[in-house]
Amino acid sequence: MTSTIQRITLAGGLVAALGLTAGAARADECNVQTPQGAVMGKTLSGEIKQISGKNLIVTSKGEHIKFDRFEGAAVKGLKTNYDELKKGDYVVVCSKLLAKPRLAYEITVQEKPKDEAVDE
To answer: What pLDDT, in 10s, does the model give residues 72-103?
Structure first.
């Protein structure tokens, strides 16, 4: 009997945990309208490490992610033109992260978040 109750409790906990992570994943989704049609992708935020006319590299959680420039890419937020972007800008990029090549469909420039220091 105790074993059955433990299994039910464990199963309920797993279902709840999966539901919470699925909800978090939806928050990272983005939709962009391009001349070729709607693009449903995911967002990635970080600091621009390197940028050129053809691509940009964003540092996110210690990893360097390369995005090729999508010709009709929208730039919004603190800057509104791709040519204004520079190393050190904090951006949120909308892209199909698993696609090859990985295209930046929309780039939103934001204030860099402050480090969350713990008060002692």
So the answer is: 889 999 999 999 999 999 999 999 988 899 99
Distance of CA 55 to the CA centre of its chain: 17
* Mean pLDDT of all residues belonging to the chain: 80
Sequence-distant (6+) residues with CB within 8 A of 27 are none
Task: List the structure tokens of 18.
Answer: 């999966």
pLDDT digits over 38-49, tens only? 989 999 999 999
Say whether pTM exceeds 0.90.
no
Architecture of domain 30-110: Beta Barrel (2.40)
CB-CB contact of 103 with 42 (8 Å): no
Distance CA 54, CA 85 (A): 13
| Domain locations in the chain as residue ranges | 30-110
